[in-house]
Amino acid sequence: MRRKHTFFLLRFGRNYLTGIAVPRHAASSDESPVQLLFSADRQAINSRVPDSAINIESLEKSFPQARSGWRAMLQPFSAATATALRGISFAVNRGEAVALLGTNGAGKSTLLRILATLLLPTRGSAMVAGHDATKEPAAVRRQLGYHAGSDTGFYARLTAGENLRFFGRLNHLSDSFLRQRIPVLAERFEVADILGNQVRTLSSGTIQRLSLLRALLHEPKVLLLDEPTRSLDALAAADFRRFLKSEVLQRQGTSLLFASHTLPEIEYLADRVAILKEGTLVAIDTAAALKARSGAASLEEAFSVLTGHSAHALEEPTAS
């Protein structure tokens, strides 16, 4: 009996210290009482998110200048002189949606990649759900969902369903939870009929939907989206925005930081808008306050006044 108790305490202590984050619905009725206990413990860990879901302080990021030919071999040893972020500081509150607005090269994707622990900052700090993105990357990843605008990272020869189950298991989701969760989201994203198809056979728009589904699969507390409706047709984009606002933001209370070039999308989803220009934070406030501050009638006009850029600079070619 003592051996069993010792094993239980060791098992419990290891799970508590590692902070494995499993959503509140991960445990199902066919799981053992011990599994249910562990799941409840993990849920409690996952729910302890501070008031500031994201806190960025004096964040800077520089890259070496791009080189071609044989000089490219010297690039890892070159000085970081191309600055992408210049001392950015702001916070995203718990349950808040903040949009990143800026031209190409303003630093939006770089900032999201640092928060997603895919890049290291040159200076400054970034906290996500109370964890340092540089010092505690594993803890940060357990709390967030991340969708990149182009790099989906799916395995081309696996089916869509196999990919989703694979990434779900990486997030410590149980098989029973995945059997329930994947069909529900697949119907919502209109990809239920292609779950048995290899990813390499799918269109770019369908892969985009899969990537969004994957980011939401484990019900993250913090969500990072880089151009979430890129490659989606108009109806699918509108449907996703409604789902994101009603189900993810309002019902689940998820904190959202997203980059977008679509101004109506920003005004529909965002509580506040952070305007970036050449790696600096020009302004962050509600859309109404930004328009009042700049004396503008629209967010497009406010962006032009505050950055000195034409609003046409926000436009990007539509991906096919």
What does this structure look like?
The protein has 320 residues and is of the alpha/beta class. The chain has two domains: 2-46, no CATH class; 89-314, P-loop containing nucleotide triphosphate hydrolases (Rossmann fold), CATH 3.40.50.300. 40% of the residues lie in helices and 21% in strands. It contains eleven helices and ten strands. It has helices at residues 2-18, 33-47, 108-115, 137-143, 160-170, 175-188, 204-216, 234-251, 263-269, 287-294, 299-307; strands at residues 52-64, 80-93, 97-101, 123-128, 131-132, 144-147, 222-226, 255-259, 272-277, 280-285. The strands form two sheets. It has a six-stranded mixed β-sheet with strand order 6-7-8-3-9-10, sandwiched between helices. Strand 7, helix 8 (234-251) and strand 8 form a beta-alpha-beta unit. Helix 10 crosses helix 11. The longest helix has 18 residues, at 234-251. The protein is globular, with a radius of gyration of 21 Å. Residues 1-47 have low confidence and may be disordered.
